[in-house]
Amino acid sequence: MSRTVGGRYLLDEKIGHGGMGQVWAARDQQLGRSVAVKLLRTDAVPYPAGRGDSQGDLLRQRFLRECRIGASLDHPGLVTVYDAGADGDELYLVMQRVPGLSLADLIAEEGPFTVERAVAVAGQLCAALAAVHGARVVHRDLKPSNVMVRPDGRVVLLDLGIAAAIDPAATRLTLTGSPIGSPAYMAPEQAMATDTDRRSDLYALGCMLHEMLAGGPPFPAPTALGVLRRQVDDPPQPLRALRAEVPPVLEELVLRLLAKQPDRRPADAAEVHALLLPLLPVPAGRPRTLLPVVPDPADPYRYPHHPGPVGGAVLPPPPPVPAAPPVVPPPAARPGQETLAGACARLSDLVAAGRHTEVLDLSARLLPRAVAEQGEAAPLVHTVRAIRARTLLAERHWGEALPELRLLAAAAAAERGPHDPAALDHRRHAARCLEQLGLAHDALAEYRAVLAALPPGSPHAPELRERIGLQLAATGHAETGWQTLLELLLETERRHGPHHPDVRRLRTHLEQLGAHRTTTNPYAT
Fold it and tell me: Which structural domain, as residue segments, surrounds residue 55?
């Protein structure tokens, strides 16, 4: 049943939730625009006992502070706050609905990024963080899922909902003893629940830069507590050990951002931006005629202040074809039928809400319609197909994911060449599907082809070598597979030490394969 909040905001789909409540896609019925509405019950957060104020009063104070902070900040890299109030037992905050993809989705689909693209994201985030820190606010939950990349490449920082003003009157409202943030991006001082400042956000920015360039976070671990321990105790691995083409100056900056002691990090976002400046993309010197299929954060630097394509077009103009038959326009939506754009927006909301079954159902119905209306090569078709393929992989539907991944790989290779990172990533996932379907010979051939096409130092190379070793064993070449895995184990142990999860996993593989070898197996039990 539909619900209207504040007498004007019609809730549509839940698109997120967290410690401060739920976030809904909604429609402002008074102004006729799409918005995002955050809802929070006053009894949602258990405040420590012994306070003079009631729990509801404290939460209301914190919520109103959030609204005032958000409304006071005016920057193109920050989400705009429109309205706030109370509706029954709930508080609500109305914000701008930002189109585009989350940085988390972009990393999952396109990562690891080129140096230019990663630096462009970091440069734009520095500008937004400078505005936030200038208002004496610490974000404290900077992470890829809290960053949106608009279709024109502009980066927007979301969710100041757990930000804390630095002055004492504001910090006393923070839940004492409860570290706020996400473990993979949490500064050591935040993990230990001690004082945080703007340099804690810079640490999170360093984690994100490492992830964009290396394809994974700097301190992976199987549990949240393991991640927090590594954030506090372990030194970060230099990026150039993982990816040789990273400039030394950028590697040095990321290591400074990830320093355990705050006073060893850059002083502020302006200093970080100054260090990034020589690496940022330069203006293209030509007009922009179309938007890319996937948002590119480098575009705001290549095309500063350029007008967008007419109507937000994402397709290049069709080439002239002599004596071509007249083009039949796509059929108009029947009365009551959802438009293609509306269906795609609903698909994006379902993805954000993690509703995989509904994503698969809608994408299965949406793909044939999008192909019929726009053609197989249309960017919208590629986007819907990528969403469907990623969800099928998450649900372990290997047989259905395989043809979608092959189509995506072929399209990316045709557009940008066979060594395009996206094409290789689609092929890597397709090889995994072949493996899971029991097609070991086909999987082995595909894994080998992808590994041969990867650039030197690719973070995906160790995974591919591991899969190749296992598929060699599965195709009757146990000795060759064992030697392949042993070589990888020795390299991994030198790099990460004997107790790293990758080392333990490789040892297990070797022990399992040892029984099939004719030579002595030092790892056999």
Answer: 4-96
